[in-house]
Amino acid sequence: EGKTVDFPDEVIEFPGQPSTTCGELQDNGFSGRIPPGQCRRIPMIINRTCGCDPSTPAPISEPTLPPTPEPTPSSTNPPCSVCGEGKTVDFPDEVIEFPGQPSTTCGELQDNGFSGRIPPGQCRRIPMIINRACGCD
Question: Quick check: 20 pLDDT over 90?
Fold first, then answer.
């Protein structure tokens, strides 16, 4: 609380959502567009990338990320379970929100994972974010 991002141009990606910068995410938080419950969880997700943590070192160089291509039906991402390997969501109609992104249901997110529309790196991080809301246990 009360901290600002050190790296506002760094890009953050939340599974199944368009990417956003740390600065845009910060602006959404300061303007009240992020629900309080989500706002409390965001720092532990973005600290390393956005530099909110005082121990975060400055990046060696400004990375230039290529634009993320829109997924296609013939996506090259492998299918994944957003709850973790061998698990599925228990609450498919539960609505979840990622800061600065449109809301989606746990079932829609799971469908995106199974159809390969979520990159593997994001899919590995999703279970710890949605576990409670989507009933992944």
Answer: no
pLDDT value for 107: 92
Query: What's the rounded Cα separation, in Å, for the pair 6 and 67?
Result: 22
| CA 19 to each of CA 10, 54, 84, 91: distance values in angstroms, whole numbers, following the listed order | 10, 24, 22, 25
The answer to whether 12 touches 49, Cβ cutoff 8 Å, is yes
User: Rounded to whole angstroms, how far apart are CA atoms 130 and 136?
Assistant: 8
SS3 of 122, please?
A: helix
pTM, two decimals, is: 0.47
- State the alpha helices, DSSP H only, in the chain: 22-30, 36-50, 106-114, 120-134
Mean pLDDT, residues 34-40 taken together: 75
pLDDT reported for residue 69: 58
56 vs 7: CA distance, rounded Å: 10
